[in-house]
Structure formats: structure tokens, C-alpha cells
């Protein structure tokens, strides 16, 4: 049983709505399989470049358990450091800071470094909160990629910038028909997110050359446009994240895995249409949601106002592509990521 069971009349209407550039591949499945094959091939190629084990000196900075460790260059990650320090570090450290830079927990260490972890209950959790929100959008994209029947071609578009004051995250997609989901269908989408969360799947990170990214996204005009924008800026690396079989472009960092989400506090709240910035006559669907990290519990009387605020449609359609550093203030104001 597919997640969204569309009626035969909708399926027929869907097939008629495919544009000419979509009919070559009329299903998301072969596209997804091809993307993952290229991702796996590149991941294996990069691992093969590590010919010998070299060591790097890692100094863990407190406030507790300060220590020095010798780790494997290009292989060991902050998560491996957390494993040396104990289970609480693995369970509660959302991201790391390596030599002053934000670092994904599964991103290999490249040189001698000073390392610290950022947790949700730290005095300054701003960056880990951003990483959590970013991961929520990625998880939402993973749900949407496989939510529809096989006949429906779903084009993931982007994670839009949503002001923190809106109290929600979002993901934009292009599907070849108009759709106004019922409350029941939104509940089903939320349940599919729950299934993914319970799998405790990792958010895999991989940096690739632009030509590899173009090969992965050759069937997605939105992602190709973004890669072309990066190339026009002279950037020669594209950062990808994969959750399950869903691959997207994001500067990151993201959570280590889906165990950082509170299973019953990830909700699809609303869906509405927005202008398509590449196809002027087309409309995109923006899915919104709200979630809580697993480190926090909340009573339903507290959760309900949070949920209600996230149901208000956010129509911000700001510049979708930025290439500045993660900490750049202008980037944070204009666009979280694409």
C-alpha cells in the first residue's frame, strides 16, 4: 500500500499533467535508484583514495571530559570521538565544532584539531537548533519523495528560508497536478516520517565535484540550476546529504541520525502553492511542518499552540541560492539552503 492512495481518476489526471520534459522518466523510482548508484560509486571512490592510515591529534574541549585523542585522518569523525567519551555524548551531541567551524558529526576529520560538541541544552544552542530545523526539512523531503504512487513524478525543489518567528520548517516540491491534501492525508505523511525516524537512519554527508552533482541530479532542473549557480561563482565542491535513499544539496551540518527527533512530535501541518521561480507558469507545493528534538518532552497543552502557529502558510519566496559561508548573516536572512 502506497502512502498516499490516489484514486484512479487522479492518477489519470496526473499522467495527463506531465510536461514534455517529464515524460521521459514517468516515475520517481528509477531516478532515485540512479541517484543512489552514483552517490555510492563516488563514496567508494573517495574511500579508495585513503591508501594508508595516518593519525591526527584531536583535543576535546570541555566544559567536561577534556582530553586528547589520536584518531584516523580522513576516517575518524566527531562521532567516533564521542564514542570514546561515552554514550551521553553520542546521544545528545547534535553537531560538533572543529577548529572553530561547524562540523557534521559523521564528517571525517582532516587535520589536527580542537573539537567541542554542541547540544540542545547548552547555554547557546542556536547553531544546533538551526541544524535540527535543516534536518527536519531534509526528512520532510525524504517523506515526499516516496509518498505518492509510482505513477507520480515528484521533483524535490528546495528547503526554503523560513523565518524563525514563523515557528515551522518547509520543503518545496513540484508535482504534475494540483493537490489539496485532506487532514487524514497530512496525518499519513506524518506517520511516514515516524517510520523513517524509528529506523535511526544516518544523515550521510558527501562532498562531490560539480560534474558528479550534475550526474546525480540530471533529471531535476531545479538542482541542476543550483549546481550551475555554484559553478558560476567559481565553487568546485557541492555538499550532499543522504537520508535513506533521498539525496539533496545542503551546506549542513545536520543531525547525526533520525534518533534526534521526537517520534510523535514531527507533524506535517499544511500545504499551499507558491510561484515557481524557474517555470513562471507553474506552481510549486510548499509543505510545512513542526517538530521537537528528542531531548525535550512537552505536554499537549504546550504542544498545541506550537502546532497551531505552524499551520499558518508562509509565502516567503526569497532568493533560492546563496553561496556564502554558513555563518554569514546575510545568508541567514535570505536563504537557509537549497
- Cα(first) to Cα(last) distance is 31 Å
Mean pLDDT: 87
Fraction of residues in helix: 25-40%
Class from helix and strand fractions = alpha+beta
Q: Which features does this protein show?
A:
10 helices, about 25% strand, about 350 residues, five-stranded mixed beta sheet, four-stranded antiparallel beta sheet, disordered C terminus, globular, alpha+beta
What does this protein look like?
The protein is α+β, with helices and mostly antiparallel strands and 338 residues long. 35% of the residues lie in helices and 24% in strands. The protein contains 10 helices and 12 strands. The strands form 3 sheets. It has a 5-stranded mixed beta sheet with strand order 2-1-5-3-4. A 4-stranded antiparallel beta sheet has the order 6-7-12-11. It has a 3-stranded antiparallel beta sheet with strand order 8-9-10, with helices on both faces. The longest helix has 21 residues, at 28-48. It is globular and about 55 Å long. Residues 5-25 and 321-338 have low confidence and may be disordered.
Summarize the structure.
The chain has 338 residues and is an alpha+beta fold. Helices cover 35% and strands 24% of the residues. Strand 11 (261-275) and strand 12 form a beta hairpin.
